[in-house]
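hey m, so remember when u said the tokens were messed up on ur end? i reran from scratch. heres the input so u can diff it against urs
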Amino acid sequence: RSSYLCCYFVLPCCFFDFHGKYSRRQSKKTQYREYLDFVAQVGFVCGFHVEEDCLRIPSTKRVCLIGKNRTYPPTERALIDKQITQYINNRQTCAVVTCGGRVGFNHKDHCDGVCKEAGSELPEDETDTAVTIWMPGFQPREKVEQIRNCASLPRDFVDDVVLNVANLLLNATPQKSDSNMRGGNTNTWNQGESLSLKEVAEHLNKETLKRLKSEYGGLQTLLKNNHQVFEVLNGRVHIRDWRKEKPSRKTKPEVKRRLSTEAFKTRLCWFFIHHPDGCSLPSESCPYAHGTEELR
């Protein structure tokens, strides 16, 4: 509807109608095939010769629909726009036009039947406003979508928040005494305490929280993004203990297992640099570099 010269390409995936989830109406077809036919029908109602193709991509949903040419001359654009408005209104009120309940799907016949019925009973009060008001309440997304997953935050700001939260968790548990260490307790690495996201947020300054709230997910997203340092489970924040991480070796073939143990280290270990007890793993077992000399 944006332009008579408009062309389109669509790769149908999730089953949605104009106002919600798509409801199946033909049990003799697969859900995917029925939905493809519905999307093709929309193209034909909008006055396109719809073509179907199959993409060479690793996906089970790879059938695409293409509209390159119109089925009507430019002089009939206003009439077609009214038919489109009627079709949308019919979909909205679930008064959907069907064509005889056939098992097959003939694009031309189906479109002709829908267009004739849509244009046969147009209300007289539907004027040219249909050209400017496509669908009441519809809000298209911006042309440039702003990234809000904490990935665009400055690195120094993220590092500062990570360090503050880690120190908060570490200081929540008293350090183990020397007597415990001499008594044979080998688990001397301080993992700190677990705190709820609310408790963590209460210890951050207002300016930091305000900046995080402008990002989708806020504090929780930032902590989850820093997978190396934190583990967020059931709304509680923990410092990750890499000794408890179990590699999924059962699913890896022998060659990949060997390559993973020889993988290059491209990031410094946060615990080696910032944790008071250092890293809980020896250098050869840690997936991160203990010092710049290990970086590749």
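this time it looks ok to me. The chain has eleven helices and six strands. if urs says something different then somethings off w ur setup not the seq
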